Amino acid sequence: MSRTLILAGVVLILFGLLWGPITRLGLGRLPGDIVIERQGFRLYIPVTSAILVSVVLSALLALIRHFLR
Q1: What are phi and psi of 30, to 5 degrees?
Q2: Burial of residue 62, with CB atoms counted within 10 A of its CB: 0-12 exposed, 13-18 middle, 19 or more buried
Q3: Could you say which of 28, 43, 44, 57 has the lowest number of CB atoms within 10 Å?
Q4: pLDDT in tens, the chain (69 residues)
Q5: Distance (Å, rounded) from C-alpha 65 to C-alpha 45?
Q6: Domain of 11?
Q7: What total number of domains does the chain contain?
Q8: What does the DSSP 8-state code read for residue 1?
């Protein structure tokens, strides 16, 4: 359990550090992301980006668990 929490923390730190280069690749402005812009107001809901990040992280965690056994 503690290894999983430490690994999750490391993954989140790495993702945070890589967020700049990731946004330059277009993540966060994918089709399906909801953006509502009005004068003095902007609402951004990254639906597609969140799904993509979830799938990638799930695959990485599955691979890590497979190799740690």
Answers
A1: -85, 155
A2: exposed
A3: 43
A4: 788 889 889 988 988 888 777 777 776 678 888 889 999 999 988 888 889 889 988 998 899 899 888
A5: 31
A6: 2-68
A7: 1
A8: -
